[in-house]
Amino acid sequence: MTTDKGMTLINRIEKYKLMVAVRTDTPEKAYEAARACIEGGVRFVEITFSVPEAEGVIKKLSKDKRASIGAGTILSIKDAKKALKAGARYIVSPNVDEKVIKFTKKQGAVAIPGACTPTEIYNAHRAGGDIIKLFPFVQIGGLDFLKEIRGPLPFIKYMLAGGLNLDNIPEYLAVRPSCVLVGSSIIKRELVMAEDWTGITAIAKKFVEKINEGQA
């Protein structure tokens, strides 16, 4: 069994593959949903900045050494500063903002900007993006799009954001992404509304197990 000793954060992201994005209407629910994912074995949890008081949630979760916490929906340097100060180790955006990417890198954190065209993807990479989030993945062509874009841009690390479920995990892993981002397939709205955190843990555990099986 290999350990994580000496591995960079990017190495670890590529090893475990799964990142979960938490988007809820209150900070309390975001914390509990994230904690439920960590209990299920998820090593990377992104708290989106659409969550009220997101930086407080990140700060609280960062004390749990079982997972690396990041911030999502970061659209400005101002929010990136808040997130990093709170303990976020990676910054995820739905768009390509060169200033946010460069600031994130300067602070020693991992930059994961979002892109959906060849030009955006390359520009995000050239600006310093460590992993490029293909978003919205299904709507821009999904797995077929990735196969095509890898032709001219094989040197880029890709995060697949959207469309993953328990049934198609083998198909997603087969195209060798650096990682996959999952939201509502694990953080199910009805479970959050019912505050059924053990239900979220159970689903998260299934995703982790399936991804581990697919990489064995």
Would you summarize the structure shown here?
The protein is of the alpha/beta class.
Structural class: alpha/beta
**Gap from first CA to last CA:** 11 Å
Number of helices: 10
Instruction: Provide the succession of SSEs.
Output: HEHEHEHEHEEHEHEHEHH
What's the alpha carbon Rg, rounded to whole Å?
A: 16 Å
- Unreliable segments (pLDDT under 50, ≥5 consecutive)? none
Tertiary shape: globular
- Tally of DSSP β-strands: 9
Mean pLDDT: 97
Order of adjacent strands in the largest pleated sheet:
3-2-1-9-8-7-6
For the largest beta-sheet, the strand count, sense and barrel status come to: 7 strands, parallel
Helix content percent band:
40-55%
Strand content: 15-25%
What can you see in these coordinates?
44% of the residues are buried. The strands form two sheets. Strands 3-2-1-9-8-7-6 form a seven-stranded parallel beta sheet. A two-stranded parallel ribbon has the order 4-5. The termini are close together. The protein has 216 residues and is an alpha/beta fold. Helix 2 crosses helix 10 and helix 4 packs parallel to helix 5.
Give the SSE map:
Elements: H1 9-16, E1 18-22, H2 27-39, E2 44-48, H3 54-61, E3 68-72, H4 77-86, E4 90-92, H5 98-106, E5 110-112, E6 114-115, H6 118-126, E7 132-134, H7 142-149, E8 158-161, H8 169-174, E9 179-182, H9 189-193, H10 197-215
Parallel strand pairs: 1-2, 1-9, 2-3, 4-5, 6-7, 7-8, 8-9
Helix pairs in contact: 2-3, 2-10, 3-4, 4-5
